[in-house]
Hints:
- The complex is a heterodimer of chains A (257) and B (303).
- Helix content of chain A is 36%, strand content 26%.
- Chain A is α/β, with parallel strands linked by helices and 257 residues long.
- A 6-stranded mixed sheet of chain A has the order 6-7-8-3-9-10, sandwiched between helices. Chain A has a 4-stranded antiparallel sheet with strand order 2-1-4-5, with helices on one face.
- The two termini of chain A are 32 Å apart.
- Chain B contains 14 helices and 10 strands.
Amino acid sequence: MSVYTIDHVSRRFGSRRRSTQALNDVTLSVKEHERWGIVGESGSGKTTLLKILAGLDSPSEGKVLFMGKCLDIRDRATLGDLRSSVQMVFQDPRSSLDPRMRVGDIISEPLRSPLVKGKVPADADARVAEVLDAVGLPADSQRLFAHEFSGGQRQRIALARALAPNPSILLADEPVSALDVSVRAHVLNLIDDLVDSMGLTLIMVTHDLAVVRHTCDHVGVLYQGTLVEAGPTAEVLNNPREEYTRTLLASTRLGHA
Amino acid sequence: MSVLDVKDLSVDFGHHRNLVLDKVSLAVDDGQRLGLVGASGSGKTVLASAIMGLLPDNAHISGEILFRGTNLASLGDREFSKIRGRKLSMVFQEPMTALDPTMKVGLQAAELISLHRDSNPMATRDRVEQVFDRVGLSDAGKVTNAYPHELSGGQRQRVIIAMALMNRPALVICDEPTTALDATVQTQVLDVLDSELAASGAACLFISHDLNLVARMCNEVAVIHAGRIVERGTTEDVLNSPRHPYTRGLLATARIDQVEPGERLPVIEDFYTPDDRDNAGRHTELPRRWVSQYGPRQWRRSR
Lengths: 257, 303
């Protein structure tokens, strides 16, 4: 079953005279348990696409179907459905975690959201301990503040927060690009394990094709707002049809792989 | 002859004397490019700041930093500012914070020239446009009149590189110069840096957490871990036959394209576990105390 059906979606920013076309007629379908990697350089519209999928923005043209229903973020009921099953991890854990909240409160905050409903675990404290354990952090870290952790640990906290309300879809916006190469492996392994064990659908935005090759089974290539290529990772990376995909491959030294 | 010779440099911070660099010795020859690789918290940026004389006031330095025979560690601010930006320059990681947002980039670059030598405005402008042109800022005349926010990330980093090369320095320190950039832009910026360093004959200390980048730019590599240099050798030797287990771990994590899709990625701990946990914990995890020391001065007074 299709989790997301993105149907001819365009997104323009700015006034009529000076507008930027962030997304241009993007059509894509994401099925359950697929792991999608969306690649492109900055300004290619990948974050805009993710924001639309997360219900943080809406398309100027076209529509997005979520679980078969048209996604309208002004409608509280649909938005509730979305928030209950879709969670997001942002790029920079330094800015996505509230510096004045304790880690335990950060992680349990989505559980207190009036929009999230359904399969939310009743005992918030137990759930916090559970997800902390799942991301490999000690249970006593919930009393600490985010700044007391290293970059890799903070991204684990962000993951724990995303997983707390038991989502079925995980959106990740460049989850490892703010991290060191040596820490990147830890976080990618963790994402891999969690997606596997919790049966999540993953949509990950990144500029690093090596990461996509490792973690995702499907890849979409965005170039200046247009989806130039999409399909199974092995197929796209081994036989890129588009010139731009080839440039991208060459710049990540994956061309020979 | 070495342009930079760091001898037994130790740096610690503040009241608790947290040791960040532990007897680091490092020499860079004239025109040589040395890569410095390490994870975050390993002390590589502190080393760069120490060489540039940019450490906060509560840092304690021991050892020597010889730059062309002058000990930078004992230099006062007034003497240091004659060298910094002129013979010794730096390319910072984050171009948006390294540039003044309220000043046109051409003016910022011109300031570098007028601070260090008598130059008439016309000649200064010519030199700025010439260097901007060299680093591949097409339409240099237009770029000089732009504010940083009007430029793309790649253009901003080119401006930073141009500024670092403006006074024909003997040594350029590049601290993660392309980490904030996209893969394709990164390649272009590295190409520019590569050819301009070669053309100017400047030596370079290239700092990065990514061994792939260092291998591309440098003929020699030093690996820093927990404030100590654990290995140094030619790039070829270090990449092909690393001696220290930590280097082996770094190599394995950098080559994620060699892992079969879906398989578990190797992590440093597969190769290397610090023997003394407490000690290593103090070195590698530099929590808030360290961060606050870069914070405002009031913090120090209130202590």
